[in-house]
């Protein structure tokens, strides 16, 4: 794979071992992927560096306080987007979702709400993402070539934001709202070392993937699956109506507690994550000769953790290709059998934020709207992530209040 001898691991036990054993395995992403995501991003740095960066950056994205603050901004954007789409006629549902999730993540990172800037950055990010799993052919017309150009443009745009912030600080101007960029610029380790510009930019690009790409795609699939299964749709809708009934009259909008009380919706999201397996593979590399299930993996060989085979294993999940949120009733996934965000020290850092975005969207969608797909039999594309070829061409219809 990508020019290196590689081993695929496909059972829960071996996947768990490879993901958790940091003494035997290190990140093993292809150099072409590293070139695009960034050498200082989470996927490329050493275990010690990763641990330090996670500790420093987790709270501004996934902390309880941070999520409570973001919740209202996410909700505002979801409500206005659904209203707008219902008046637009046909839309590419996935394209529009990705615009919303991008706007949210840019606000969290940079407090930026400039539409032209955001649309330009989103286009560049899409081109970058398409090249991450492409063959490393750096010639005009190929996805990898376009992705390298997109990375250059993204880095330049983020660098100008970093420079502007540094100049503001020198001039004694501090931003009214402390965002992720501020947090990364303030952070220092026990030796007083601060993050370099390259580290800040690569971390931001990494979080972009965690908090934008996954939530957009998974929201689309959850909406499609619910619309295709009226009994699950009704059950999810009833839960959301119940949340409204219990709400005090003086309360406006969702609270984090209400989102965490959405037990059935959480099962819908977990089932979508399992069935879609948004991140299908993780690359590791053997640090030394490693004995794995009786096989010796030579030092330097790539070890690919194939999440999709675990999530579609009929011994773990009966009728694995069937969408069935009820399979999660009284079911606690055993270690290594449910890996939508990876496992071990390198679990996806934006997982809680992604699930929050999906929950808020589905809450408002289920209560007030329905999806009519215009090409329900449309064939699928699988790279860089599985999606209908027409990006889910649909109409969003408002449903009468019941």
TrEMBL record:
InterPro entries: Cyt_P450, Cyt_P450_CS, Cyt_P450_E_grp-I, Cyt_P450_sf
Amino acids binding heme: 348
Source taxon at top rank: Eukaryota
One Pfam family linked to the record: p450
Gene Ontology process terms (BP): brassinosteroid biosynthetic process; brassinosteroid homeostasis; gibberellin biosynthetic process; sterol metabolic process
Keyword field: Heme, Iron, Membrane, Metal-binding, Monooxygenase, Oxidoreductase, Transmembrane, Transmembrane helix
Gene Ontology CC, one term: membrane
Gene3D superfamilies in alphabetical order: Cytochrome P450
Membrane-related topology note: Single-pass membrane protein
Pathway, per record: Plant hormone biosynthesis; gibberellin biosynthesis; Hormone biosynthesis
An example molecular function term from Gene Ontology annotations: ent-kaurenoic acid monooxygenase activity
UniProt cofactor(s): heme
Subcellular location: Membrane
Family stated for the protein in its record: Belongs to the cytochrome P450 family.
Function noted in UniProt: Catalyzes three successive oxidations of ent-kaurenoic acid giving gibberellin 12 (GA12), a key step in gibberellins (GAs) biosynthesis. GAs, which are involved many processes, including stem elongation, play a central role in plant development.
Protein name: Ent-kaurenoic acid oxidase
Protein species of origin: Hevea brasiliensis
Highest classification ranks of the organism: Eukaryota, Viridiplantae, Streptophyta, Embryophyta, Tracheophyta
């Amino acid at each position: 794979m990508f020019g290196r001898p590689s081993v695929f691991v496909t059972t829960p036990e071996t996947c768990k071992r490879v993901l958790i054993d940091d003494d035997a395995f290190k990140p093993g992403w292809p150099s072409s992927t590293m070139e695009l995501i960034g050498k200082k991003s989470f996927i490329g740095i050493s275990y010690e560096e990763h641990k330090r960066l996670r500790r420093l950056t987790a709270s501004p994205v996934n902390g309880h306080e941070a999520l409570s603050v973001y919740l209202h901004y996410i909700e505002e954007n979801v409500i206005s987007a659904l209203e707008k789409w219902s008046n637009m006629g046909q839309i590419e549902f996935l394209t529009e979702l990705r615009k919303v999730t991008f706007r949210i993540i840019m606000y969290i990172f940079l407090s930026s709400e400039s539409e032209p800037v955001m649309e330009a950055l989103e286009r560049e990010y899409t081109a970058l993402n398409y090249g991450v799993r492409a063959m490393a052919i750096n010639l005009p017309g190929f996805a990898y070539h376009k992705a390298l150009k997109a990375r250059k443009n993204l880095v330049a745009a983020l660098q100008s934001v970093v420079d502007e912030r540094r100049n503001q600080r020198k001039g004694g101007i501090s931003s009214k709202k402390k965002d992720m960029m501020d947090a990364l610029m303030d952070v220092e380790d026990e030796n007083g070392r601060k993050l370099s510009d390259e580290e800040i930019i690569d971390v931001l690009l990494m979080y972009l993937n965690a908090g934008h790409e996954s939530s957009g795609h998974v929201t689309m699939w959850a909406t499609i699956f619910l619309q295709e299964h009226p009994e699950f749709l009704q059950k999810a809708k009833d839960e959301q109506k119940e949340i409204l009934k219990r709400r005090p009259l003086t309360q406006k909008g969702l609270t984090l507690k209400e989102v965490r009380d959405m037990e059935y919706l959480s099962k819908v999201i977990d089932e979508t994550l399992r069935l879609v397996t948004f991140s299908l593979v993780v690359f590791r590399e053997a640090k030394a000769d490693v004995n794995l299930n009786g096989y010796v993996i030579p030092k330097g060989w790539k070890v690919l953790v194939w999440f999709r085979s675990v999530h579609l294993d009929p011994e773990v999940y009966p009728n694995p290709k069937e969408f069935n949120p009820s399979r999660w009733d009284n079911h606690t996934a055993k270690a290594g059998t449910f890996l939508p965000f990876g496992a071990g020290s390198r679990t996806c850092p934006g997982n809680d934020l992604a699930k929050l975005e999906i929950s808020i969207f589905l809450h408002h969608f289920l209560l007030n709207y329905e999806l009519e797909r215009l090409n329900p039999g449309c064939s699928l594309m699988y790279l860089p992530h599985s999606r209908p070829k027409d990006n889910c061409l649909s109409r969003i219809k408002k449903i009468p209040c019941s």
